[in-house]
Amino acid sequence: MRVTQGMLTEAFMRNLSYNLKRLGEKEDQLSSGKKVRLPSDDPVSAVFAMRLRNTLLSIDQYAKNVDDAVTWLQNTETALQNTGEILQRIRELVVYGSNGTLTESDRKAILDEITQLKEQIFQEANSSYNNRYLFGGFFTDTPPFTYDVNGKIVANPSFIKPTRADIISDTGTGLNASSINLSKIGSGITTGEYSLEVSNFDSVAKTADIVIRDKDSNIVAQKTGITVDADDQRIDGVPDSSKDFVLDLKNFPILGNGTVVVKLTSDTARYNLGRLNTIDVSLYGDEVFQDIFSVVEGIEYDLANNRPDSLSSKLSEIDNAINTLLKFRSQVGAKINRLEATKTRIENNRIDYTALLSKTEDVDIAQVIMDLKMEENVYRASLAVGARVIQPSLVDFLR
Amino acid sequence: MYSGFFGIEIAKKALFASQKAQENVAHNVANANTPGFSRQRVVLESTYTKPFSGLYTGTGEVQVGTGVRIGDITRIRDSFTDRQYRDENSSLGQWSVQTDTLKQVEAIFSEPSDIGISSVLTKFWQSLEELSKNPEAIEIRETVKERAVTLADTINHTARQLNEILGDINFRISVKVDEVNTLARQIASLNGEIRHMELTGTTAADLRDKRDLLLDQLSKIVDIETYEDQNGLFSVNVGGAILVKGTEFNTLTFDETDLAAKPIWQGFNINLNSKKGELTGLLELRDKKVGGYLSDLKTFAKTFANKFNEIHKSGYDLYGNLGEEFFIYNPPNSGDLLFVNNVIVNDVKKIAAAETSTGIPGDNRNALKLADLRYQYIDALKGTIDDYYGALISRIGIDSQEAQRMTESQEYMVSQLNERRKEISSVSIDEEMAKMIMYQHAYNAAARMITAMDEMIETIVSRMGLVGR
Fold it and tell me: CA neighbours within 13 Å on the CB side: how many for A367?
């Protein structure tokens, strides 16, 4: 092979710059601490690292959600616990008050205390956290309970407004739950089961008649000749428009005659605990406290009117109220337990994913330092070679 | 019998030939580092032989040599290696032109990091989670709005930068097209000169070197084929079309303002069809790569905006009204991809977190649905929103990595072939020095021959016939 000075110089330059480039790569890795800085360094790892980062951010968010849910539920539990203690005290007073030897003035004294205790329960039922009423359901900005003109405690009427529809059964109408337009429904329609009877279905004219009955089979709304595949079909309420139903049938038209039973309920707020994993955290005050208030108000009435016999019969009612309360307390307790388990899992996930991310994109320092040293040596060697590339030629030896 | 002066004539020819050869050595040494120079050799040949018969010859005539002459000065070069070199050089051009731009694209997306679209998007999802916990809180709604605006800005910024890169690529294409035209003109004019010089049958070595150097440059830009017929007509073809034929050449035109334009043969209205080279690389970069990323980003922004709006419009805002468009995709005359609806920017109560108007303000079900969009499989994207974006980033990474690797391996190939060429054509100082000594000795010997001849003639002229005087 013929070798010339030019070839040697060029090969030297090429190798030197290649070695310097590799040295630079290792220095980059060491100074940044990252194996993958651009997707092209390792496309698979880069995208994986990107996902892991996002997963970690989501895990942080879910951990926050769990903490918030736990705080909310603990506040709820405290309110329920306080209410339970107050009910126990009321029970004692009722036992004492039903004693036949007490005078009317004795009972009046008990009444004063009961009224104070009722006021305390009222405070608990309206307790709030972070400016949101704990027992308000979706209606976090209005007090769940207020006094009416007669001095009786009443629940926020919005509680009985349905916010969710579920089909219980269907005998051939093909009606979909989302067809019931809850936002346009009459104010007189409350939560509960309703049956929608479709008759005289005409597949050519696309019309049908519809009768809506409540749980007790009373007609609440009816209309003849609705269009079976159009939106905004108003079923006129009986006796007035406060019981109107509105059906949106464009996407899910009625397919035939039959009866469909729909359950209208109020939903509660749910928190995200993970991918497609939610928990409902709020309680509607009317479910928890309505019975309690009516029992306590009954006791007040008996005491005020000096009716010890009726008072003693209230004992079983108050026991029932206490049991209901306990049921809700155990529900809340179970949810807190579930949240704590979730929290532990999230923490473990966080550790696992952090380790995985580090493994994916962080350099092994020891390894890189070793590599760097190797590259440094190679680079030094090539520089040393450079000093020898300009060899003496024949010129130097000719006379 | 002939005069003895013929010997002096032969020696004189030798003197001149050696002198010329020595000058050739000087030329080689002088051009030892000239780019594209190939070493030259004088082709010495013996001159005609003269039939000679006479008293002292045998029965027939003998052939007597008459000396030396310089037949040609040729260059030492292997045209096959040249062809291989140019072939690989085209591939090198195709990939190396893409490497830097693709790295730039990676930097624009800046993934994986905390400032890329991916992180901004995740922060937006997080704000929706917060909204789901506090649907009535104005400050959380403000966060959702701010994160949405940041997301839209980040996507717009990325799209704008990709568009700028597309414009840059078009500018580079037009520069390369001009370069091809200039090179074609130079090659055509060299063709004329070479043909003129070589009419006598000798080699125009230096002009050929110049032409080869231009062809090397041209091969980096487009994929070329070269032919030289027996009459010395030299032509260069690009993708089956004639770029240069003898002294004639064709020109390419390119409309720089059109982001879909291709280089066109002027006067023929046919697209340039080059399979390799920088021009091909730039077109591939513009149409398939950067252009592809931009259209993927558009699909991403559009689908995201549509799906998000769909859910948002099915929910109710704090006023109890149905939600409006949250994002506006590609509004006319804006030049940008994504905006947050001004109605929402001005009044965050218009963010529809509730599923029903009756559940306001605590109904968070629509906010949950919006947050869950993240995990929803979307047919148009063949995966979730995050999947689609991840696939885009991995595509960019793979393209960039491929370009880098191909450039590296082509650089190696080209430098190997260049070494092969140098092995054959480059000047070796040692070798030239050896030749120098050789020709010097030949010159000295020829001079000595003249002296010897001179002495011989002197013997005849001056010394003979003295006997008996």
Answer: 7
Q: Please give the full DSSP string across A77-125, using - where no structure is assigned.
A: HHHHHHHHHHHHHHHHHHHHHT-TT--HHHHHHHHHHHHHHHHHHHHHH
CB contact under 8 A, B112 and A7: no
| B 338-367: CB under 8 A from A | 354-365
Q: Architecture of domain A62-157+271-347 in CATH?
A: Up-down Bundle (1.20)
Contact status of B376 with chain A (Cβ, < 8 Å): no
ipTM: 0.78
Helix or strand or coil: residue B191? Answer: helix
Q: What is the pLDDT along chain B (469 residues), one digit of tens a residue?
A: 466 788 889 999 999 999 999 999 999 999 998 988 999 999 999 998 878 777 776 777 788 888 999 999 999 999 999 999 999 999 999 999 999 999 999 999 988 888 889 999 999 999 999 999 889 889 999 999 999 999 999 999 999 999 999 999 999 999 999 999 999 999 999 999 999 999 888 889 999 999 999 999 999 999 999 999 888 899 999 988 999 999 999 999 999 999 999 999 998 889 999 999 999 999 999 999 999 999 999 999 999 999 999 999 999 999 989 999 999 998 777 778 899 999 999 999 999 998 887 777 888 889 999 999 999 999 988 999 999 999 999 999 999 999 999 999 999 999 999 999 999 999 998 899 999 999 999 999 999 999 998 998 888 888 887 676 6
- Subunit contact A394:B359, Cβ cutoff 8 A: no
Q: Residue B136: list chain A partners with CB under 8 A.
A: 132, 140-141
Instruction: Give domain limits for chain B.
Output: 5-76+427-463, 84-190+274-413
Of the candidates B168, B243, B234, B170, the residue with the CA atom closest to the CA atom of residue B196:
B234
From chain A, the residues in CB contact with B418 under 8 A are: 10
Going from N- to C-terminal start, the domains of chain A cover 62-157+271-347, 162-265
B392 vs B294: CA distance, rounded Å: 10
Contacting residues of A for B360, CB less than 8 Å apart: 138
Q: The whole model's pTM is what?
A: 0.82
